[in-house]
Amino acid sequence: MKNRECTLTVEDESIAGIVALKLLKSTAEFHHCIFTGCDLSNANLSGRSFIECEFFGSNFALANVSGASFRSVTFKECKLSGVRFDQCNAFLFTVRFEGCILDRASLYRLKAKKTQFIKCSLKETDLSECDLSGSEFDLCNLERTIFDRTNLERADFRTAYNYSIDPKKNRITKAKFSSAGVAGLLDKYDIVIEM
After folding, report:
1. Do 128 and 166 sit in the same domain of this protein?
2. Is the domain of 108 the same as that of 182?
3. Which end of the chain has the smaller Cβ count within 10 Å, N or C?
4. What contacts 191, CB < 8 A, 6 or more positions away?
5. What percent of the chain has pLDDT over 70?
């Protein structure tokens, strides 16, 4: 039997602080909502839907997003450490990250084409088998980010740094890299490149 606790739909609302946690206990869907300064760390967001929503300065660290839907959602200055986006509803998954901390998060096997990561930290984030074709990594720290059988075709890494991408294990056709970043494509060869 389905949990009938989540029945409410909230539309076109600005939600701040602790109010978010109270609403999430009774709300199944959020449409066109703006969340500001919300502490949703370790929160259970499973099964919730966020459609064309924006999150500003919010903490999602280790939030449970199992079965949650994120469609045209923007995260700005948010902490998303350890969030398992790979467990959310993949149907129409579209997100944008700006100034966010996504360290140790996971997008494993997600179709996330044309995703924008702007001024983000993705340290030790799992992007294995993810479709990130056409995505942008603008001024992003990709230290120990996991790229394994990842589709990075036409992705833009020109201003990204600290990445290590094996061209034999990942699809990088027409991806863009700066000349300074080319070393990140040759790490496995243990060679010295002087600029």
Report:
1. yes
2. yes
3. N
4. none
5. 90
The rounded distance, in Å, linking the Cα atoms of 117 and 75 is: 10
Residue 1 is encoded by which pair of tokens?
């039997």
Residue 46 belongs to domain spanning = 1-77
Counting Cα atoms < 13 Å in the Cβ hemisphere of 4 gives 1
Give how many domains the chain has, as a whole number. 2
164, part of any domain: yes
- The tens digit of pLDDT for each residue in 8-65 reads 889 999 999 888 878 888 788 999 999 999 999 999 999 999 999 999 999 999 999 9
Q: Clarify whether residues 73 and 139 are in a common domain.
A: no
Q: Which two tokens stand for residue 82?
A: 């350890």
Quick one: tokens of 33? 């909502």
In angstroms and rounded to an integer, the radius of gyration of the C-alpha atoms of the chain is: 18
Boundary of a domain, candidates 43, 77, 111 = 77
CB under 8 Å to 190, separation ≥6 — which residues?
none
The CATH number covering residue 36 comes to: 2.160.20.80
Structure tokens at 91: 């149907």
Which of these, 173, 85, 185, 94, lies nearest to 142 by C-alpha position? 185
- The dihedral over CA atoms of 80, 10, 43, 45, expressed in degrees to the nearest 10, equals -80
